[in-house]
Every structure is written in C-alpha cells, then in structure tokens.
Amino acid sequence: MAEFIDAHGNLLKADVEALANSVNTVGVMGKGIALQFKNAFPANFKAYEAACKKQAVRLGEVFVFDNGQLMPPRWIINFPTKGHWRARSRIRDVADGLDDLRGVIEELEISSIALPPLGCGHGGLDWEEVRSLIEDRLGDLEVVVHLYAPEGAPDAADMVISTPRPKLTTSTAALVSVIDQYSQVALFVSLIEIHKLMYFLQEAGEDLKLDYQAKIYGPYADNLRHVLKSLEGHQLEGFGDGSKKVRDAEPITVRPGGANEASEALAENHQIAERIQRVLELVEGYESAYGLELLASVHWMAARKGNVSDLSGMTRRVQSWSQRKRRMFTAQHIESAWHRLHDQGWLATAA
Asked: Is the dihedral of CA 81, 84, 90, 92 positive or negative?
C-alpha cells in the first residue's frame, strides 16, 4: 500500500526518487512551480520544450525525463494539467494523467515521489478533490508519495537555481547597479521601486527597451519581469518565480559579486553612470514605494497627458488616475513632487 505524507516547504528539495512538475502542453514554464523547475533543471526544460514542439506532450500522459544523476531526484515527471498555459485545468485530465503516472511508477520501480497540487492554483481545481483522486489512483502501489498542498511559492532564497549565470549587458548591468546604489540609502528595495527607478533611467535617455504602461502602481513595464527572472539567483535575489503579488513580493537584493560585475560591465560607459546618478539625485528623500510611485506618476502625467506648467491641472489628472491614487496622494504631495521634477529638469523635455 502507498504511504501518503503531507509535506511542506520546497518540493524541489524533497529527498525522493522522482519529482513531479505541473506543466502545459505548449512548452511554456513561465510561472509558479513550473518556472521553479525550469530554473532548477534546465536540461529537463529543453527536453520538454522540444517534445512540445513535436506535439509529444499530451494531456493524460506524463513526460518522463531521466535526470542522469546518482543522487536524487533520478526522474523528473512532467505532468500536463492543462493544454494552453492560459487555460483552466480539468479534473478528468488529472485523473487520466494519474493513471499514466501509475504505470510509470510501476515500470521504473519508483519508490518515492513528490507531487505538487496538480491543477490547483492557476489551474483552478480544488485541492481536496485532487488529493482524493491521487490517493484513489495510487493508493495500492508500493510507493511513498509526498503531497504538497497549495501553500504559495517558497522564499526566493530557498528556490533552486541551476541555470547558467547570464553575462550582464549594458541594460542588465544598469539594473543591478541602480538597485545596488539605491539600496545604500533605502530601507529595502521593493519591486515597485525597481520599476520606477528603471522608468526614470529610461526617461533620462537610456534605451532600455522597457514598455511602460499606466498601471495601478504607476508606470509599469511587464517586460522588466523577464529581465528580473533571468538575473534571479545569479546577480539578484528576491524576485523568485515572480508569482507573488506586487505588494506581497520580497525585497530584491544584489547577490555577492553582482555589484562588482555590474561595475565592470559599465566601466567604460560614463554616460550611463551620469544618468544613474541623475536618477538617484532625483529620488533623494523619496526613497520608498510611496515616494517613487508619486514621482513617477506625476512625471507620467506631465510627460504624456498635458501642460507641464499647469500644476493645478496636474493635481487633478494624477488624482483622477484611480481611486487609490486619489486616496493616497494629497495635493500637497503632488505639488512637492512636481517641484522636484521641475527643479531638476525632468519636466523640461516633457511633451
């Protein structure tokens, strides 16, 4: 009979022969546990991605990867719980996949396996129903099953990163350098603050190719998330798998060696050093998520929505952005931010 163990913590660190990973059938590991697997086992991702391109990864069938190591885990079980990554999971697909997994466990004589909450989370299935299904399908096998209920992502520092260390480009080195220098005076560096710092660096003239849009917390560039993902566990730490909500996200820090690496990459680029310094001078005294959101929101409205010299109109436009900003940003704070931007020349080129 199977032994079912309620497990907690980081599934990727479970001492078992096989780790199961919830995947889709289109070759994307972009969020949650799938992204953690991509970072921890890059060879498995390449094999899975290639199989998806050949349409060899299908609902109801697990895709098994031999990790080729004497130390556990020996096997990575890619378990499709949905077709497209945007789709919802269906309980019958999980049931069919468990039937296939049962055969794999018997064929490979797997004695222990760790299972994530298959199809739950982004997939939308109920964990108690999925758990009952797992116990029903695997209950009579001679296997120890570590069951991980939905608990959210582990802390960033506990995530396993095995991807190659990326070489810093001018843009990524600038990101690391800005975070490092800003962290010398800020209490901690939040994701909101990073978005605003890079917004101002781009506005200062650095072509970062960040696509900023007006969002709930002010100017926000979704493609900055991909940059942070690539540096996570190498030059930076704290972004994790990017699954946490903005307000719940951990502070982001520069890992040992990251600052020196960034300095070396930018050593001959005096112009970008001047632009970074200009940004840091702008935000002096505003070093918080609130302060940077205020500055960036006022600048966004001035640069894109109206006459930069119309202070009263600026206050109305910022407060009309959303009810949240209307509650948060007082006319006095907006006026102070406007004067800071104006006095340091950030509004002179606004159109």
From this structure: negative
